[in-house]
């Protein structure tokens, strides 16, 4: 009774302070275990994301669910509301453009507590459950990948496909794709899912897979949260390696660099001993990047001098590769690596190698995060731009962007690596270029208020627009990864031949446009216009 009175007071306070035209009893129907909070700390945290580009958008309340049923009750209340409110699922808050925010509804905080006392009941979402014989793990949609890894390693197993940064939620990455250097071999994370529990925009809890509710299953994967909130995912596992040989080699010629990358990903069907397990790369346009970003890789006593390597057009390219192994096969790892490196055409004497535990390799970016946090450089605006570029146009992109628009300042890492389209399931909602091989180009810049114009948010944002405009004018049909558009037609153009199906399924599973309104794909409707 005391908890219900607290909820009533909290919701009534919402009506007074923000003018919410919502009957408090509608939210009270959620029950006392739903952990609905209007604590200012909760609300403030849910109003921001990693991008810090959209400005604070405080939700009306924040929910801390402990089960799929909690989420379903909330969405069902929104769906049946006479006035209507939106619901957005938030994981670790790593969105860039406010995709997990909502100013006119409730944020469902899927990944732990983000602060405040709320009305916590002490209940928590289920822990990961590993099935060693079947080689899969069932995880809560808000579970962070780092915790999935820790749970599965206890059984000597690990997921096959990763993101570079592990402090992301399972539901968040599966709503996009989830990519890293393993994608050429295993496909994105959405290609390694066996089953999902999803709460639709009507508040229905569905279990879906290839065999059951298959259309929903494929739509949700890469579906940007438009059809449902992922509350459970069944992830495929493989035996976990113990160690990783991590190698970086440098190139001054772009065509040689991409030719070697494309050769390496063409080996995906070969035995494990005859291919690398991870293929990525990045672009270097100034010495500060290679000697400072993830600086623990390179020796500070022997810094890399770009000028000494005679880069073509002032740009260097770094191929980043890794090979997993077990202690029992350590005697053959040197020979396997050497055999693969002999077939590449990098700059002689530019090989940088380190060896580390498998967990440390997968969690490598977190170490960089801790360094940036210690310097106050983490919680700054991140005008990131992630593009899928078709293989046939990647040389044009290099000439126009890497050697043109960017100049010699980057304000952050620029990743570039190819993937095989046949590793992506065409039935998912994810969109990729119409070529067998395409590249991720990720400009992961940070805006700094340090007086340098090239580091300012305005400069970097304008540069992103300039890059997109160049691609359009040069006939480079790029697809945004983690897409952000502001008009209906831009979204239609993004999905192209997948749009009709996307729209149809939205109308079927979320007809009131309640879910993930921060994506700005569909405009939420109130009851009057819906009827």
Automatic annotation (TrEMBL):
<feature type="signal peptide">
    <location>
        <begin position="1"/>
        <end position="21"/>
    </location>
</feature>
<keyword id="KW-0560">Oxidoreductase</keyword>
<dbReference type="InterPro" id="IPR016169">
    <property type="entry name" value="FAD-bd_PCMH_sub2"/>
</dbReference>
<dbReference type="InterPro" id="IPR016167">
    <property type="entry name" value="FAD-bd_PCMH_sub1"/>
</dbReference>
<dbReference type="GO" id="GO:0071949">
    <property type="term" value="F:FAD binding"/>
</dbReference>
<dbReference type="Pfam" id="PF01565">
    <property type="entry name" value="FAD_binding_4"/>
</dbReference>
<feature type="domain" description="FAD-binding PCMH-type">
    <location>
        <begin position="54"/>
        <end position="240"/>
    </location>
</feature>
<dbReference type="Pfam" id="PF09265">
    <property type="entry name" value="Cytokin-bind"/>
</dbReference>
<dbReference type="InterPro" id="IPR006093">
    <property type="entry name" value="Oxy_OxRdtase_FAD_BS"/>
</dbReference>
<protein>
    <recommendedName>
        <fullName>cytokinin dehydrogenase</fullName>
        <ecNumber>1.5.99.12</ecNumber>
    </recommendedName>
</protein>
<dbReference type="InterPro" id="IPR036318">
    <property type="entry name" value="FAD-bd_PCMH-like_sf"/>
</dbReference>
<dbReference type="InterPro" id="IPR006094">
    <property type="entry name" value="Oxid_FAD_bind_N"/>
</dbReference>
<dbReference type="InterPro" id="IPR016164">
    <property type="entry name" value="FAD-linked_Oxase-like_C"/>
</dbReference>
<dbReference type="InterPro" id="IPR050432">
    <property type="entry name" value="FAD-linked_Oxidoreductases_BP"/>
</dbReference>
<dbReference type="InterPro" id="IPR016170">
    <property type="entry name" value="Cytok_DH_C_sf"/>
</dbReference>
<dbReference type="GO" id="GO:0019139">
    <property type="term" value="F:cytokinin dehydrogenase activity"/>
</dbReference>
<keyword id="KW-0274">FAD</keyword>
<dbReference type="GO" id="GO:0009690">
    <property type="term" value="P:cytokinin metabolic process"/>
</dbReference>
<dbReference type="InterPro" id="IPR016166">
    <property type="entry name" value="FAD-bd_PCMH"/>
</dbReference>
<comment type="similarity">
    <text>Belongs to the oxygen-dependent FAD-linked oxidoreductase family.</text>
</comment>
<keyword id="KW-0285">Flavoprotein</keyword>
<dbReference type="InterPro" id="IPR015345">
    <property type="entry name" value="Cytokinin_DH_FAD/cytokin-bd"/>
</dbReference>
<keyword id="KW-0325">Glycoprotein</keyword>
<keyword id="KW-0732">Signal</keyword>
